Amino acid sequence: MIKACIFDLDGVIVDTAVYHYRAWKQLAHELGFGFTEQQNEQLKGVSRVRSLELILGWGGVTKSPAEQTELATRKNQWYVDMINRMEPSEILPGAQEFLKIIRQAGIKTALGSASKNSSIILERLGLLPLFDAVVDGNHVTASKPDPEVFLKGAEALQVNPADCVVFEDAIAGVQAAKAGNMKVVGIGSPEVLSEADLVIRGLHEMTLAQLQALDTG
Ligand code: B16
Ligand code: MG
């Protein structure tokens, strides 16, 4: 029986990728190289530290660990400035409504995100009361596709992983949910997220009946 849903943040509840993109692009510009939207796509669901490593590699630039920490901090300050100005209208279609519907049906909810800024975003958008637990980049040591973030979410909700459904937009996130023995709904393209149990374009397409049908699938 489905007892809990665990949601990724970027790409599922909000589109923060656009702000990550602007901040990384600014950093790349200061370092003297370009950064494209296609490259940004590859950073979805990837931690801040790993994202920086990839970007420096693409730019052909080597930095010491101390310099990398400074660069990641600088990028994050720009990013935080932007998310501090986000508006509730930026919540992705259907996300708030679906959270309310499942909570009314007695299903528990958790966030399972790689971001260390998830609480700022949820609070700013008035979404924090819709989550029973928030597990994010501040609470995990292993990144997706490792299932740690989702397993910690299930643990916080005191629900067996097999009774959880994860909502994810990144391939690594879908793999993480599967590795945690959870059902997973992919948000995006069925070709890309082929390992998911169900793929939808957004939470506006999701119904309680579809969620419950995953139990038998
Ligand atoms: P932060 P998710 C991920 O969020 C983003 O997709 C990814 O682009 C970002 O680098 C990562 O969070 C870390 O974010 O710098 O705020 O800690 O999709 O796991 O919700
Ligand atoms: Mg995501």
From TrEMBL:
<dbReference type="InterPro" id="IPR023198">
    <property type="entry name" value="PGP-like_dom2"/>
</dbReference>
<comment type="similarity">
    <text>Belongs to the HAD-like hydrolase superfamily. CbbY/CbbZ/Gph/YieH family.</text>
</comment>
<feature type="binding site">
    <location>
        <position position="8"/>
    </location>
    <ligand>
        <name>Mg(2+)</name>
    </ligand>
</feature>
<keyword id="KW-0119">Carbohydrate metabolism</keyword>
<keyword id="KW-0413">Isomerase</keyword>
<feature type="binding site">
    <location>
        <begin position="8"/>
        <end position="10"/>
    </location>
    <ligand>
        <name>substrate</name>
    </ligand>
</feature>
<dbReference type="GO" id="GO:0000287">
    <property type="term" value="F:magnesium ion binding"/>
</dbReference>
<dbReference type="InterPro" id="IPR010976">
    <property type="entry name" value="B-phosphoglucomutase_hydrolase"/>
</dbReference>
<dbReference type="GO" id="GO:0005975">
    <property type="term" value="P:carbohydrate metabolic process"/>
</dbReference>
<protein>
    <recommendedName>
        <fullName>Beta-phosphoglucomutase</fullName>
        <ecNumber>5.4.2.6</ecNumber>
    </recommendedName>
</protein>
<dbReference type="GO" id="GO:0008801">
    <property type="term" value="F:beta-phosphoglucomutase activity"/>
</dbReference>
<dbReference type="InterPro" id="IPR036412">
    <property type="entry name" value="HAD-like_sf"/>
</dbReference>
<feature type="binding site">
    <location>
        <position position="24"/>
    </location>
    <ligand>
        <name>substrate</name>
    </ligand>
</feature>
<feature type="binding site">
    <location>
        <begin position="43"/>
        <end position="48"/>
    </location>
    <ligand>
        <name>substrate</name>
    </ligand>
</feature>
<feature type="site" description="Important for catalytic activity and assists the phosphoryl transfer reaction to Asp8 by balancing charge and orienting the reacting groups">
    <location>
        <position position="113"/>
    </location>
</feature>
<feature type="binding site">
    <location>
        <position position="51"/>
    </location>
    <ligand>
        <name>substrate</name>
    </ligand>
</feature>
<keyword id="KW-0479">Metal-binding</keyword>
<feature type="binding site">
    <location>
        <position position="169"/>
    </location>
    <ligand>
        <name>Mg(2+)</name>
    </ligand>
</feature>
<dbReference type="InterPro" id="IPR010972">
    <property type="entry name" value="Beta-PGM"/>
</dbReference>
<feature type="binding site">
    <location>
        <position position="10"/>
    </location>
    <ligand>
        <name>Mg(2+)</name>
    </ligand>
</feature>
<keyword id="KW-0460">Magnesium</keyword>
<feature type="binding site">
    <location>
        <position position="75"/>
    </location>
    <ligand>
        <name>substrate</name>
    </ligand>
</feature>
<feature type="binding site">
    <location>
        <position position="144"/>
    </location>
    <ligand>
        <name>substrate</name>
    </ligand>
</feature>
<feature type="binding site">
    <location>
        <begin position="113"/>
        <end position="117"/>
    </location>
    <ligand>
        <name>substrate</name>
    </ligand>
</feature>
<feature type="active site" description="Nucleophile">
    <location>
        <position position="8"/>
    </location>
</feature>
<feature type="active site" description="Proton donor/acceptor">
    <location>
        <position position="10"/>
    </location>
</feature>
<dbReference type="InterPro" id="IPR023214">
    <property type="entry name" value="HAD_sf"/>
</dbReference>
<dbReference type="Pfam" id="PF00702">
    <property type="entry name" value="Hydrolase"/>
</dbReference>
<feature type="binding site">
    <location>
        <position position="168"/>
    </location>
    <ligand>
        <name>Mg(2+)</name>
    </ligand>
</feature>
<feature type="site" description="Important for catalytic activity and assists the phosphoryl transfer reaction to Asp8 by balancing charge and orienting the reacting groups">
    <location>
        <position position="144"/>
    </location>
</feature>
<keyword id="KW-0597">Phosphoprotein</keyword>
<dbReference type="InterPro" id="IPR051600">
    <property type="entry name" value="Beta-PGM-like"/>
</dbReference>
<dbReference type="InterPro" id="IPR006439">
    <property type="entry name" value="HAD-SF_hydro_IA"/>
</dbReference>
